[in-house]
Design a protein that fits this description.
alpha+beta, Aminopeptidase, 2 domains, seven-stranded mixed β-sheet, four-stranded antiparallel β-sheet, 14 strands, LPG_synthase_C, UCP018688, Phosphatidylglycerol lysyltransferase C-terminal domain-containing protein, Acyl_CoA_acyltransferase
Length: 311
């Protein structure tokens, strides 16, 4: 407590918290992966993600100690979003931190502008825009714009006609773990070890998280796998997709097979952001997204207020 104000107590995400967190996210048809318990749970150590609840409002902190920020507050059905905005401002003041909201969706941005005209300044966070595709496009690959993807997929199916697609079950998980571990050994990108930790955390808690997965097996070995879940009744979210890059068409195959088998009954697929990586951006754009889950950073329009958290 500081000056009579109770400080928000942020804590780790535990499996027992899932029903409560889900309840907040179910209030609206959120499109971003930030609004999914599994995402927050699997990346909490890598990105310093924590949560707190107060008076029917959910607060999510990210950035660890390096660049602390909050997502815009999530108000429950009996709470007010504006109260959450004001409480978030107090949190930055209490901790002597510059004010920063990240992951502000277009809808939330409009709501903030409506409630607090002129108070915030918004900057598009293009590197974290999430790619949203029509499921039927990823399944059918119809038309000229998907010709190259269809060619890669057909080439794979002709060359590896004995490939086997299978849903990920408890007996397949060990094979997927082996594939993920070997992939880390042969790749040296920044953050790759954090990704392996996140993948194994999903496998450790497979049933409790309610995940779906698919794998492609070639010559007795899992060469590709994908993990996802329903984000809402219209959209599925792909958390992880891994494939042997030396096998032509394998990425196209696991993408196509997984969605066709597990998510053909939803309208959209969220394949997350490109993180500003040129190769990943090109790959995601080449699948012709239907739209983006846009994200913005928000600071106070008055620079002096930012330095004091809006004090």
């Amino acid at each position: 407590m500081i000056g009579g104000i109770i400080i928000l107590e942020f804590k780790r995400f535990e499996l027992r918290d899932k029903p409560l967190i889900d309840k907040y996210f179910e209030q609206h048809h959120y499109e971003a992966s930030d609004n999914c318990f599994t995402t927050l749970f699997m990346w909490q150590e890598a990105y310093g993600i924590r949560w707190a609840e107060e008076n029917g409002v959910l607060y999510i902190q990210g950035g660890g100690k390096r660049e602390p920020f909050l997502l815009p507050p999530f108000a429950g059905k009996d709470a007010k979003f504006l109260d959450g905005l004001l409480r978030a401002k107090e949190w930055f003041v209490e901790n002597n931190l510059p004010f920063l909201f990240k992951g502000v969706s277009k809808v939330v941005k409009e709501r903030m502008e409506e409630l607090c005209p002129g108070r915030y300044e918004f900057t598009p966070d293009r590197d974290n825009y999430e790619y949203i595709y029509k499921s039927e496009d990823l399944i059918n690959l119809s038309g000229k714009k998907f010709r190259q993807k269809k060619n890669h997929l057909n080439q794979f199916r002709m060359q590896y006609s004995n490939y086997e697609y299978m849903p990920i079950t408890e007996d397949i998980i060990p094979l997927c773990r082996e594939t993920a571990a070997s992939w880390v050994e042969t790749h040296h990108e920044e953050g790759i070890e954090d990704e392996l930790v996140a993948i194994n955390l999903l496998f450790d808690n497979w049933e409790a998280l309610g995940l779906k997965g698919g794998a492609i097996k070639l010559f007795g070995r899992v060469e590709a796998f994908s993990i996802g879940e329903l984000l809402n009744d219209k959209m599925a979210l792909i958390h992880i997709e891994k494939a042997n890059p030396d096998i032509r068409g394998l990425y196209q195959a696991i993408n196509n097979e997984f969605i066709r088998h597990e998510f053909s009954d939803v309208e959209f697929i969220n394949r997350e952001e490109d993180m500003g990586l040129p190769g990943l951006r090109q790959a995601k754009e080449s699948y012709n997204p239907d739209h983006f889950a846009e994200k913005y950073d928000a600071v106070y329009a008055n620079e002096a207020d930012n330095a004091t958290g809006g004090k």
